[in-house]
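Re: beginner question about structure tokens

> Can someone show what the tokenized structure looks like for a real chain? I only ever see the sequence side.

Sure, here's an example I had lying around. Input first:
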Amino acid sequence: MPQPQSREEYEPKAGRPSAEPVPSDDVPRGPRKSAGMTMWTLPRSVWLGIGIIASALLLMTAWALLRSGELSGDVFVRLPNGEVRRGAAVDVALLEPSAEFDLLEKQWEAEWTPAIQRFLDAARANRLPLEAQIDLGRQARSITAEYRRRALDVLKAQRPVHIARADASGHYAISGVRSRPYLVVASYSADGILFSWAVKTEVGRGSQTLDLTNHNQSTLLTVD
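And the corresponding structure tokens:
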């Protein structure tokens, strides 16, 4: 029968190494906890600030949605032979209102209207030689060409706020439009005839319709 061990055999004697080795610096001791602050240990004041910022962003987004609307419509024209053409794949752009473009339109109309009237009067009365009548027509066309070039430069210099491409039926739709005035710009060519638009409109909340047709095309950008 084995004899019970004495207390001295259980406890290590002074000066003797323990049975369990003491870990040294060369022996890996497992991952250590970082003393730095994680996102879960941020102070309550920081979390409160984050919450306020997030709430403000949500309110701003909701306010922007309430102040926005949708603009849609169809692009179609009637040709001289009576045929109706729909502007498939026409790009419809929303630009900021341009005071310079408005001024060019007024200046062009002030010069072109009397010039084209002189040509029409001469043609009706038939009092001038044919060459003189043709010259009057050329003067009216040259006025239009110069103002049209300047007007197109003004429009091209602007960056569209929104742009949408009409589908195969000529329908376009622009959503998320902020409520304010815009200039709706588009162009369409059919059977060698150019139709151009620069229509002033004001978009409000909700859905609004603006068709681009023969009736609201830009005279300055279209007349030849």
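Each token stands for a local structural state, so reading them left to right follows the chain. DSSP finds five helices and nine strands in the chain.
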